[in-house]
Design goal:
mainly alpha
């Protein structure tokens, strides 16, 4: 599952949830959005999402299970990182626009963020 898909699924879940669950879903969306701006890797993002899930509980068990399933699908993308080209990594982690907008120095930072070699 691509990062953009995860975000879309969480947004869809949020729109059909009670206010308390929508607030919890916003925590996951916030982790994703802040990740795009910080230097951490996809593995660190996955760890932060796992930690978030471990520290919250939705009012409906099914919602919690659904978020867990979404994170597991995303985990498979993170775990296959080593077999991806840089372009695949940029697409899978929704950073293609960032790549197009940065300088050469910024591209080196994106290589590091995505655990790739220039």
């Amino acid at each position: 599952m691509m990062l953009a898909q995860l975000r879309t699924e969480l947004e869809t879940l949020r729109s059909g949830s009670p206010a308390s669950d929508a607030g919890i879903t916003n925590l996951f969306l916030s982790v994703i959005e802040s990740w795009k701006q910080d230097p951490t890797t996809p593995r660190q993002l996955m760890s932060n999402l796992d930690r978030t899930l471990g520290n919250v509980w939705f009012s409906q068990d099914e919602t919690h299970r659904r978020v867990h399933r979404l994170l597991e699908e995303f985990r498979s993308t993170v775990e296959s990182l080593g077999g991806m080209t840089m372009n695949e990594r940029l697409v899978m982690f929704d950073l293609m626009d960032a790549w197009d907008q940065v300088t050469e120095e910024g591209r080196h930072a994106l290589y590091a963020k995505l655990d790739a070699s220039p």
